[in-house]
Target: SDR family oxidoreductase
Amino acid sequence: MSESQRLAVITGAGNGIGRSTALMLAKHVKTLVLLDTDANKLATLANQLTALEYPLQIDIYLLDVTQEMAVQTVFGEIANKHSRLDILINAVGGGTAAGNPGAKLEDMELSQWQGLLDLNLTSTFLCCRAAVPLMKRHQYGRIVNFSSIASHGRRDKVSVAYAASKAGVDGFTRKLSREVGSYGITCNAVAPGITLTERVDEKFWQVRSAAEKNDVLESIPVGRLSTPEEQAEVTVFLASEAASYVTGQIVEVSGGI
Model:
């Protein structure tokens, strides 16, 4: 099957890097399945994709990818309708979803800890578990997970929960790549630096003072924040035939941090 005939599933497609990836990937695949919890943003994205006038089929599903039964149901519907799944991009995640994304350990509620692990790591597990059997059926697959440079535990403005969840994504990605490699499936992760999505702009960047912003920028060798499109470029590469011999890698897209 040619690359232009592939089916790609993108979680968190309505926002940020997921949305940029959908817009960029549209010209390379036959079918895009867009998953998100925000119906309005999914509809807006679907309209944008339709306006591109590519020969593209678009399916949208409202889905909370932290919910096991809901994930199984939606991926079952995808299997019944299309009988294949070639590309899975797990773009759901983030640290600003917690009420206090920079909370110290002693100030963190168990619900905050569990919420960030579910959002960033459990969602990745559930979607990969649902997708891999479909990929094995056709001896082909590209899985791209989302980690973060925070997984190293050296970022002061994020919580231990966020760092732990993204470190978990790193280990999960490397281990899964070994389990599925013989089936023609690659599994990699993109680890962004600070990326100016709408959510990060509102909840992280705009609340900083001019001095704090300057400190952040001085810590980045290229001297600026990333755009969602820059993260999407690397994501689309890892989902492509050009990356057929790349697997088990955590690719940092951080401006040199």
Q: What stands out?
A: The first strand starts at residue 7 and ends at 11. The chain is about 45% helix and 15% strand.
